[in-house]
Specification:
Among the domains are: 53 residues, no CATH class; 117 residues, Nucleotidyltransferase, domain 5, CATH 3.30.420.40; 85 residues, ATPase, substrate binding domain, subdomain 4 (Actin, Chain A, domain 4). The model has no long low-confidence stretch (mean pLDDT 87). The strands form five sheets. Strands 3-2-1-9-10-19 form a six-stranded mixed beta sheet, sandwiched between helices. Strands 11, 12, 13, 14, 17 and 18 form a six-stranded mixed beta sheet that branches. A three-stranded antiparallel beta sheet has the order 5-4-6, sandwiched between helices. It is flat. A hairpin with a 4-residue loop joins strand 11 and strand 12. 41% of the residues lie in helices and 19% in strands. It contains 17 helices and 19 strands. It is an alpha+beta fold.
């Protein structure tokens, strides 16, 4: 049967979570943490076994290749057994450990999606600033190890834009603010083409919010077991955090009515299962505030997210700027905080209005500038907007024509994956 008649497999690998499923679906079938647990005891055993006993070495190597877990299973295994070591194959949006990544894909395809990779085209995602060599490695693993009939490597920001349409017509000009767990990218897209020279990246992402919450709770002296403090901070972030309009007002609110605003967290120690509890106070709004006032978290980077977005749009070609301000699309789990889009829109509008006012003042009122419309688009599926955009793209008939095929790979090698068509075109 022809692979083009079957739905394509869409896998969006992120630093924190991987979303996987089949094209045409509205939601991914599985959302799993991007982590691999490998049993180190077999590897040590193969090293210590004598040189002459090659069969023992061989079987230990085979077992080491087979005995690993991914996602939630990996986290559970590492908590219950000391034999398993956790490996995070992706850091800051880039793949660092290709062996672990190959294992991760193997489990995704055979264990979770339960499909034969030779029968489906594949759509994988990549970060906008990925090196061409990384695309080559991805193509090599997919064509050599899994023998896929076709592969398309998409830029996640373009997919998020395709998912974030506000009208029945899909608007492919806009700025994607992609805040994941390990990387934050601001990517302007004009008519579906990435304006490569204007991409901005900032070193504050979801993991930094978690670390800041962990630090605040530790400084306050909450009795959280050290081995569970990061995980507890992550769950607090996901369940209780919100964005406030004014930090001082928010502090006053919490001080006036602590009973109303302070939440209680109850957890269990990973090893013994003993219960513990702690209070969650100011970190509820101070966590997401890291994006708007980065100086409270670190002195290394102090430019707020709205200023970075404004710089990004100002560095784009002048005829695209109004359209870019009008369609700022949020993507990634760390944009899901309550009122995040309202705060971002308000702060951006202030910057833009101040510039228009300064321009009018400079010209002495002779020429009146049109007000610039600033619109931050928020939608319920922005947590997996990239995956959904991939699902939409891979459902179109043109998708199969755009893919790199196995025949092309055999003819030209991995270099076919080096260039990405969305970076060619307009500018």
């Amino acid at each position: 049967m022809d692979p083009t008649s079957r739905p394509a497999v869409v896998i969006d690998n992120g630093t924190g979570y991987t979303k996987m499923g089949f094209a045409g679906n509205v939601e991914p079938c599985f959302i799993q943490p991007t982590v691999v647990a490998v049993n180190e005891s077999f590897l040590n055993q193969s090293r210590t076994s004598s040189k002459s006993n090659w069969s023992a070495q061989y079987s230990a190597g085979v077992m080491a290749d087979l005995d690993f877990f991914i996602g939630d299973e990996a986290l559970t295994k590492s908590r219950s057994s000391n034999a398993y070591n956790l490996t995070y194959p992706i850091r800051n949006g880039q793949v660092y450990n290709w062996d672990a990544m190959e294992r991760y894909w193997q489990q995704c395809i055979f264990n979770y999606l339960r499909c034969d990779p030779e029968d489906h085209y594949f759509l994988l995602t990549e970060s906008p600033l990925t090196a061409p060599e990384n695309r080559e490695y991805t193509g090599e693993i997919m064509f050599e190890t899994f023998n896929v009939p076709g592969l398309y490597i998409a830029v996640n920001s373009v997919l998020a834009l395709a998912a974030g349409y506000t009208t029945s017509k899909c608007e492919m000009t806009g700025v994607v603010v992609d805040v994941g767990d390990g990387a934050t990218h601001i990517v302007p897209v004009a008519d579906g083409y990435v304006i490569g020279s204007s991409i901005k990246s900032i070193p504050i992402a979801g993991k930094d919010v978690t670390l800041f919450i962990q630090q605040l709770m530790r400084e306050r002296g909450e009795k959280i077991p050290p081995e569970d403090s990061f995980e507890a901070a992550r769950k607090v972030k996901e369940m209780y955090c919100y964005t406030c309009s004014d930090v001082v007002k928010e502090f006053n609110k919490h001080d006036k009515e602590p009973g109303k605003y302070i939440k209680h967290w109850r957890g269990f120690r990973p090893k013994t299962g003993a219960p513990y509890s702690c209070d969650i106070g100011y970190e509820r709004f101070l966590g997401p505030e890291v994006f708007f006032s980065p100086e409270i978290y670190s002195s290394d980077f102090t430019t707020p997210l709205p200023v970075v977005i404004d710089k990004c749009i100002q560095s784009a070609p002048i005829d695209t700027r109004r359209a870019l301000y009008k369609n700022i699309v949020l993507s990634g789990g760390s944009t899901m905080f309550k009122d995040f889009h309202r705060r971002l829109q308000r702060d951006l509008k202030k910057i833009v209005d101040a510039r228009v006012l300064a321009s009018d003042t400079r010209l002495g009122g002779e020429v009146k500038a049109h007000p610039v419309e600033v619109n931050v688009v928020s939608h319920p599926i922005q947590r997996f907007a990239v995956w959904f955009g991939g699902s939409v793209l891979a459902s179109t008939p043109e998708f199969f024509a755009a893919c790199h095929t196995k025949a092309e790979y055999e003819e030209y090698g991995a270099s076919i994956c080096r260039t990405n068509p969305v970076f060619k075109g307009m500018y």
